[in-house]
Amino acid sequence: IMLHSTLALSLLLIAVTSNLAMAIKKEKRAPQTLSRGWGDEITWVQTYEEGLYQAKKSNKPLMVIHHLEDCQYCQALKKAFAENEEIQEMAQNNFVMLNLMHETTDKNLSPDGQYVPRIMFVDPSLTVRADITGRYSNRLYTYEPQDMIFLIENMKKALRLIQTEL
């Protein structure tokens, strides 16, 4: 009986230790940056509220990218976005940047539905720019990988609006 309980205890200890080791190993993985693959050189804000605050403070437009990890269209857009040097550079220098994997409570950010991917701009006066749209009439704020030129134009438009309106 003694041998039996010692063996059981040893097995239990081995099981606990290996689970612990696996948990520790998980913790050691490189932390996921806020970029989530959209651009590691870009400074990303963590929340919509923080984005609004930074936009107002810095007088830069806020660019909000709604996406989901398991959406193939989002993944394709992310790749095109991350590989486009002009977009990355503008995003880094001229915008407050936020990518979200959940909806905000601000209904103005989903004027035509809560689809992904969706990219919207908010100006420093904290107005959601429903007038900066992509190419598709059924999903006004969506972009496809081949639409990076349109996105660049819209980023420039968002910057121009600040100079002319605000």
UniProtKB/TrEMBL annotation:
<comment type="similarity">
    <text>Belongs to the AGR family.</text>
</comment>
<dbReference type="GO" id="GO:0002162">
    <property type="term" value="F:dystroglycan binding"/>
</dbReference>
<keyword id="KW-0732">Signal</keyword>
<dbReference type="InterPro" id="IPR036249">
    <property type="entry name" value="Thioredoxin-like_sf"/>
</dbReference>
<dbReference type="Pfam" id="PF13899">
    <property type="entry name" value="Thioredoxin_7"/>
</dbReference>
<feature type="signal peptide">
    <location>
        <begin position="1"/>
        <end position="23"/>
    </location>
</feature>
<dbReference type="GO" id="GO:0005783">
    <property type="term" value="C:endoplasmic reticulum"/>
</dbReference>
<dbReference type="InterPro" id="IPR051099">
    <property type="entry name" value="AGR/TXD"/>
</dbReference>
<protein>
    <submittedName>
        <fullName>AGR3 protein</fullName>
    </submittedName>
</protein>
